[in-house]
Amino acid sequence: MTHRILIPFELPDARPVSRLLIDSLAPMDIVLLGHYGLPEQTPPEAAREEFEDEAQQELDGLAADFTEAGIDVTTRLVFGKDRGKAIDAVADEAGCDAELRPAPTGSIDRVLVPLLDTENLDRLADFVRVLIGESGTEVTLFHVVDAAAETAESEAMLAAARDEMIANGFDAEAVDVAVVEADNRSEAILAQAEAYDAVVIDESHPTVVERIVGELPEMIAQRAVAPVIVVRQLD
């Protein structure tokens, strides 16, 4: 199965994706979204008329990094006030099954996979496989519990997930599991992510706190400085 991944950029002055990460994404179909953020009082039509040529030129430059690596890309340019809505709309229209929140990375030697459950494990594992290739990169399946009584059940869930990944070709020596007890799931994932080079996570609705301070994948990319692949929920 070929995955299609959306990579959103906030224009102008977007940070390009590192060549290492571009090379890791080569097996996927790539859609680049250039979102030009606008003040509340600015009509999108007026902004497009004034800034479209400049914005498209910047987006084409970002796309060139992929084409130079031999990767075909599709680009979309959106002028608007709500970046999240633009991302969702373009991802739906383009049929993307994941979104990348880029961050600088020198290598991908350790990948963190936070799990709420194993419902989407196969698709998460597919994206992990694309990232690591045949490198033997360390993969940690991670779960946060809020009560000690849940720990044994969570450990059993992760052990079963690990067994499934190994049965599907992952190196048994490279896949580990970790369960931690914490009151704040997001903060626990953020703290864990700081020791990893990339994160592959399920799409989930943000908590009230995350809506205020930023959604979890964006927080990971910014605070843990690790690229994040958000695997979208399919209907």
Describe this structure in words.
The chain has 235 residues and is α/β, with parallel strands linked by helices. It has a 9-stranded mixed sheet with strand order 3-2-1-4-9-8-5-6-7, sandwiched between helices. About 3% of the residues have low confidence.
Major sheet details: 9 strands, mixed
Q: How big a fraction of the residues is strand?
A: 15-25%
For the record, the count of structural domains works out to 2
Structural class category: alpha/beta
H/E element sequence: EHEHEHEEHEHEHEHHE
What percent of residues adopt helix (DSSP H or I)?
Answer: 40-55%
* Spatial gap, N to C terminus: 17 Å
The 3D shape can be described as globular
| CATH architectural arrangement of the largest domain | 3-Layer(aba) Sandwich
Chain-averaged pLDDT:
87
CATH class of the largest domain: Alpha Beta
How would you concisely characterize the structure shown here?
The chain is of the alpha/beta class and 235 residues long. It has helices at residues 19-24, 44-67, 83-94, 121-132, 151-167, 185-193, 208-213, 216-224; strands at residues 4-11, 29-37, 73-80, 98-101, 110-114, 138-145, 175-181, 198-202, 228-231. The model is unreliable at 208-213 (pLDDT under 50).
